[in-house]
Amino acid sequence: xxxxxxxxxxxxxxxxxxxxxxxxxxxxxxxxxxxxxxxxxxxxxxxxxxxxxxxxxxxxxxxxxxxxxxxxxxxxxxxxxxxxxxxxxxxxxxxxxxxxxxxxxxxxxxxxxxxxxxxxxxxxxxxxxxxxxxxxxxxxxxxxxxxxxxxxxxxxxxxxxxxxxxxxxxxxxxxxxxxxxxxxxxxxxxxxxxxxxxxxxxxxxxxxxxxxxxxxxxxxxxxxxxxxxxxxxxxxxxxxxxxxxxxxxxxxxxxxxxxxxxxxxxxxxxxxxxxxxxxxxxxxxxxxxxxxxxxxxxxxxxxxxxxxxxxxxxxxxxxxxxxxxxxxxxxxxxxxxxxxxxxxxxxxxxxxxxxxxxxxxxxxxxxxxxxxxxxxxxxxxxxxxxxxxxxxxxxxxxxxxxxxxxxxxxxxxxxxxxxxxxxxxxxxxxxxxxxxxxxxxxxxxxxxxxxxxxxxxxxxxxxxxxxxxxxxxxxxxxxxxxxxxxxxxxxxxxxxxxxxxxxxxxxxxxxxxxxxxxxxxxxxxxxxxxxxxxxxxxxxxxxxxxxxxxxxxxxxxxxxxxxxxxxxxxxxxxxxxxxxxxxxxxxxxxxxxxxxxxxxxxxxxxxxxxxxxxxxxxxxxxxxxxxxxxxxxxxxxxxxxxxxxxxxxxxxxxxxxxxxxxxxxxxxxxxxxxxxxxxxxxxxxxxxxxxxxxxxxxxxxxxxxxxxxxxxxxxx
Length: 716
Hints:
Elements: H1 3-17, H2 19-42, H3 46-59, H4 61-74, E1 78-82, H5 85-95, E2 101-104, H6 108-113, H7 115-121, E3 125-128, H8 131-139, H9 155-166, H10 174-191, E4 194-197, E5 201-203, E6 208-213, H11 217-223, E7 227-233, E8 237-238, H12 241-256, E9 263-267, E10 272-275, E11 279-282, E12 289-295, H13 299-303, H14 324-329, E13 334-335, E14 337-338, H15 339-350, H16 352-358, H17 368-372, H18 379-394, H19 398-407, H20 411-417, H21 421-424, E15 425-428, E16 433-436, E17 448-449, H22 456-459, E18 463-464, E19 472-477, H23 479-484, H24 487-499, E20 502-505, H25 515-520, H26 523-536, E21 544-547, H27 550-557, H28 559-562, H29 570-579, E22 580-582, H30 583-591, E23 602-607, H31 610-613, H32 619-626, E24 630-633, H33 647-651, H34 653-668, E25 674-677, H35 680-692, E26 698-701, H36 702-713
Parallel strand pairs: 1-12, 2-3, 2-4, 4-7, 5-8, 7-12, 19-20, 19-21, 21-22, 23-24, 23-25, 25-26
Antiparallel strand pairs: 5-6, 6-9, 10-11, 13-14, 15-16, 16-17, 18-20
């Protein structure tokens, strides 16, 4: 284990050890998610309008920064464009005299440059006025969310923190805590020499700073002290004041499930008094100086790169509420900013190594963050690109080289290993699985499927004819698990297709889809495998290429991007990717087949694979519900990830296991006899989780249930 691996293992250990914080994060997310969903349903145009405004802004970022700087100066602002954190901090030092009292509202940009730490190192008292930030400051607790820094701190702990600070006992009740903190902060607003805030948006046309809040502290911070300092990244600049209001509305809706925050302030310069005799007098009730520190710090470089969309982020934090990794690890996942988007920011602003140290290899690729993001930022795609850069710079670990470049690409190795697997693994008979005897590559407690004595390609001829009138001819891609371990799933797929009048071509030259390699950043190996598959399925008369593994489906559809710009293969890859269909989607939607008529008399619960959910495919669940005698019991959290993540669960089984056990607990609570899913990878993870919990529930692929019903139905 190298130093980076030890660092990441430590992050996982610290995150998983803090069970109380994880429970608080999940409870907060579970409360807020449905509220945000309801607001999005009421205001469906807010997200698209935000993305449109941000696209327009980032496309012309350099020109907008120039325009904004000029407009701000015309309004009386002092403006610094800081290329580095050091420049920003030096400027702030020049504005805040020693011995000053500073009041500060929430500012992620100020946290990014370490402004509070810098001022405190000079003996300056900085008072956080946002309640969440104040809790973290007084309690010396790391913040865990951009909008709710203290969401992971239970109320009794908060009462204890402020009781100690104020010297009197506070009841662990929200009203008592808020009243006490409000009273203690009032004099700070009035006595402070400097106020520091962030910005939700900066309007280039009017030279205005827009800030939104609920507590009312930002109004006090920006109004009472004689000097106001705004710290914001240049990505906060939008073309017009109207665009700024779109940002504010999206931040309220997705961040706090409100149509708009309690207070929206538009600051267009220092306080002014207009007098007929004296003209304009600066500094009356409000500040006499307003300084704007615009952080560049890698943002121009991001705007000119494939990471441009990362600048659409408005720090609403809604993505974190659905992220399984953040849910378990909290502030351990990210650098300066939290979650996957935080790692993209880290790479752009502090270098790739900081992103790697923050957990670049943690992302599961489930894409739930993209689904809920108001700007639809494709964070998992950016994570993959950064991983590819990391592989170019640092290479792959020994274990990944063995798995990705030796074992997965070679069916011959799997065929050779099957007869001797008993030497290295002991059987788990009740699950038809196995566990390692010597925990070198895998953990001792982990259960994996047994390798089949005959691979799927040995069980069927290359072409399996349709039964009855032929409706279509398809190619079948069973994937690594389907070909070598879950051959019963592959056999069920062939059976169901043939019974529905579909000729099945099973080309023996096919290899791994390449998605594990893409996810790990090994694009060279992924392209080599993809090219082999393009040749293997090179037939013009195929109606579709069928998968029963959605992960493989994603990998195969990704070929058009993998070969983008390749004059020889781009066209072939696009044609190939366009034909890829999940078996349930193909049967139920494309062909409209009739469901089986024979009943099975069983109760099941369904786990939706992430790679189907993110494409909006619900056909497996619809097909299950259409089979007579199958009672489908709905578990809580249908959209939750099982934690498999392919290569992720190989690297971080301890974390994958915790995520999987949470999912399994929900599925087990349904009381169903069998857990049904539509992905062999999910089957592996759920089977292991059920085994670890001692559950008697079985795990099956939806196509196996279909095949069983057809078998009862008899011949046609």
